[in-house]
Design a protein that fits this description.
By secondary structure, the chain is α/β, with parallel strands linked by helices. The chain has one domain: 3-Layer(aba) Sandwich (Rossmann fold), CATH 3.40.50.620. A five-stranded parallel sheet has the order 3-2-1-4-5, with helices on both faces. Strand 2, helix 2 and strand 3 form a beta-alpha-beta unit.
Length: 226
């Protein structure tokens, strides 16, 4: 019987790689994206392209409004930090962190997984080349997985454990790109920029753009999205 999995798909480089990995592992993938009040819609357009290109069984977009709370450069009128070099990215939790975002997203994924009787949830969090987000750490994922098995009817009643898969969590951006290339990911379909220019074109100076550029450079490649 085909294994089902729910996968959080942002339209970015990491989640596209995870979708390819999940497919390669034999999962029937149900992709979930969010219209959550983020600054731009281009990432949702990218998510739709990636879901189709990589063969997701279904792709849903959930509507929630985190602009109601703000508190992030991605969900309010706070300026997105820009730098000239990746070395200028500071320590600590940046203003692009969206409060509780991965907790909320994983909760939605868990709800859909329970309906589908899917025991596997994939998320492209990364604890190395990430921008200091607390909800990208292994400790958070383990805590959420424990909660998932306590908080759902099928987690309590069924004998199979719900698992949160984080295949990229200990990889650098360069390693992620190399892995994705082996799985045939077309990174030209993806969008990573926090603050795209008209066109849309990546700004090239936000944390996400700089980390992405570093990853392609370390692979001796030009970013196909540019």
């Amino acid at each position: 019987m085909t294994k089902k999995a729910v996968l959080l798909l942002s339209g970015g480089l990491d989640s596209a790689t995870v979708l390819a990995i999940a497919k390669a592992q034999g999962f029937e993938v149900y992709a979930l994206s969010f219209r959550y009040g983020q600054r731009h819609k281009v990432e949702l357009e990218a998510a739709a392209r990636v879901a189709q290109a990589l063969g997701a069984k279904e792709h849903k977009i959930a509507d929630i409004d985190l602009r109601l709370f703000g508190g992030s450069a991605l969900t309010s009128d706070i300026a997105v930090p820009k730098h000239d070099k990746v070395e200028e990215i500071g320590g600590g939790i940046p203003i692009t962190y969206v409060p509780a975002r991965n907790t909320i997203f994983l909760s939605f994924a868990l709800a859909w997984a329970e309906v589908l009787k899917a025991y596997d949830i994939f998320i492209g969090v990364n604890a190395l080349d990430y921008s200091g987000y607390p909800d990208c750490r292994p400790e958070f994922i383990l805590a959420f997985e424990k909660m998932a098995n306590l908080a759902t009817a099928y987690g309590i009643e069924d004998k199979q454990k719900i698992q949160i898969h984080t295949p990229l969590i200990s990889l650098t951006k360069a390693q992620i790109i190399a892995l994705g290339m082996k799985h045939g990911v077309d990174y030209g379909l993806t969008v990573s920029c926090y603050d795209p220019l008209p066109g849309p074109k990546p700004c090239g100076k936000c944390d996400s753009c700089l980390l992405r550029a570093k990853g392609f450079h370390e692979n001796g490649m030009k970013d196909p999205a540019l």
